Amino acid sequence: MIDRNIYRLVLDRLRQFPAVALLGPRQVGKTTLALRLFGPNSRPRGANSLPVNVFSPSSLYLDLEKPSDLAKLEDAAQFLAAYEDRLVILDEVQRLPGLFNTLRSLIDDGRRRGRKAGRFLLLGPASIDLLHQSGESLAGRIAYLEMRPFDVAEIGANDVERLWVRGGFPDSFLADDDRGSALWRENFIRTYLERDIPQLGPRIPAETLRRFWTMLAHQQGGLLNAAELARSLAVEGKSIARYVDIFTDLLLVRRLTPLHANAGKRLIKSPKIYIRDSGLTHALLNLPNREAVFGHPVAGASWEGFVIENIMGVAPEGTESNFYRTSNNAEVDLILSLPGGERWAIAIKRGLAPKAEKGFHMARDDLEPVQSYVVYSGDDRYPIRHGVEAISLRALCDMLAARQS
What's 157-404's CATH class? Predict the structure, then answer.
């Protein structure tokens, strides 16, 4: 069992808010984390500082995909009122969107009796409809947390390459062999396309979405060209925007926007698109193992996306991420704007001999970052030149995580 770093944030938010929504893709480990933290036999570090009985063995867990649990909430107000002194975990909460108004009433009643925090832990996908419905009903009463796949801070130092090749979904990363990992990812993709996305409302043929997802994998880290994608899929350009929104809302795709710095330059304005889990990128391209990944042209772009996801997973709350590119080839792969205004420039290189290209130095002259790094595949940290350091992904993530705490 691999400890998840997000558990500290879950505890902190439950100290502050009556409801906490833990959102993330299917099979990322939300239910496992919730039951490890709050199940009958669990009492994690920091539990003593939470409200009384939050960690009671009789904390209630309901899986709304189970008809028996769903039936208990036919009269949700009456049923849940009996558990005011306990934490209630509601899994697959998107199945019952009308529940949020009931939770608001229960939370407000509890507040008047002094129960101000630690009432409900809601688990579900980060769909735009779920966020909208819960935000309207529970405004000021709910905190949102994103649960991601495993990152380099959660695994062994020798497993970074395996994490990149297989991705961070627990069942994929922990599979007995590459074949089992690849099979799991293929079934994950099929389930999302044929079951999960249609349940969230969009009526789009699964084969169309798969072709679109695969095209994004081929163009990993490239600028979004909606017109080209639309021609390839024989759909309208506005359909491409809709498809990107669906995968972005589900936390499966990252839309990295350009930094609009006032540098007096002609800037690239299109966003870059990344499939967020590198293992899914490789599965969509039928790259089942290390040898296949290293021999494919996507390897460099896949590593870039992998690095960006790991960095953003540990960056302090409030950190903004962008890229920077001008028409004269000044470029930075990732710009971090940290809370307080500090700006870091990060170039990403796969391999053991990193160097900062001319375009990176040109961009640094434009942006004047406080820190400049080249993240590479090795373990050593050393200066390159002109204030740029080569650094490993793990070391950079450790630096950012220290700022979080």
Answer: mainly alpha
